[in-house]
Design brief:
The protein is built from eight helices and eleven strands. With 225 residues, the chain is an alpha/beta fold.
């Protein structure tokens, strides 16, 4: 596995590089966002690990720019910015995982392996998902209903994909938080409900057949009726 590490703290970057190489992974390091972007666009990496507070181009902007340029490699953000709002911003910029500093190296290794496994899992070989008149193009990251394109943020797309992959099954807020955001939210937060409402307005509001349903006290289910 080839990994790009974008980290401006030289000691930490060296520590991560050495640890990854002990796993027999090939590693390249960039010390600012501009060099990170150059390397990410020029070489085929299997995974990118980046800080948020980077010189020249910060991690949020870098992640967003890489996604716009068509880079599909999983992105894991390492940062001292550990609030729920920071994590949501990271995921909306295109990140797949988020690990707050300070962290234990074994947890970093575990996160990398999970993201790598997710990338190469059989279900990811699908190119599209289709239920009723709603279709997700997983390659282009485009959603359409009744032939009309739906503009979704990265996290809205990921949430819709998760619901569609689990069609006919009730998924709880905890399931969604862990599988879509890869974090555990504090008790009482309504972020899941907020994003579900975002999706309903974009996916269901203008159509007679509703696909996203609430199961009171349990969670949500995606089905045609």
């Amino acid at each position: 596995m080839r990994i790009l590490v974008v980290e401006d703290e030289t000691k930490l970057a060296g520590f991560i590089k050495k640890g990854f190489e002990e796993q027999s992974w090939e590693v390249e390091v960039a010390f600012d966002g501009r060099m990170g972007k150059y390397l990410a666009l020029g070489s085929g990496f299997d995974l990118i690990v980046m800080d948020v507070n980077l010189p020249v181009i910060n991690g949020f902007d870098l992640s967003q720019q890489l996604r716009q340029e068509g880079v599909s490699a999983p992105i894991l953000m390492l940062t001292a910015l550990g609030t729920v709002e920071d994590k949501l911003q990271g995921f909306d910029s295109g990140a797949d995982g988020y690990l707050a500093k300070p962290f234990e190296f074994r947890e970093l290794i575990a996160r990398v392996k999970v993201l790598a496994k997710r990338k190469y899992s059989p279900e990811r070989s699908q190119h599209s998902l289709k239920i009723a008149d709603l279709e997700l193009n997983l390659d282009e990251k485009i959603a359409r209903r009744a032939g009309q394109r739906i503009d979704l943020t990265a996290k809205e797309f990921a949430l819709l994909e998760y619901l569609m992959r689990n069609r006919g099954r009730v998924v709880s807020r905890v399931d969604i938080a862990e599988k879509v955001w890869d974090i555990r939210f504090d008790t009482g937060t309504n972020v899941i409900d907020v994003y579900i409402n975002f999706l309903r307005k974009k996916v269901d509001k203008s159509h007679p057949t509703k696909l996203i349903h609430t199961v009171v006290g349990m969670g949500y289910i995606f089905k045609e009726k």
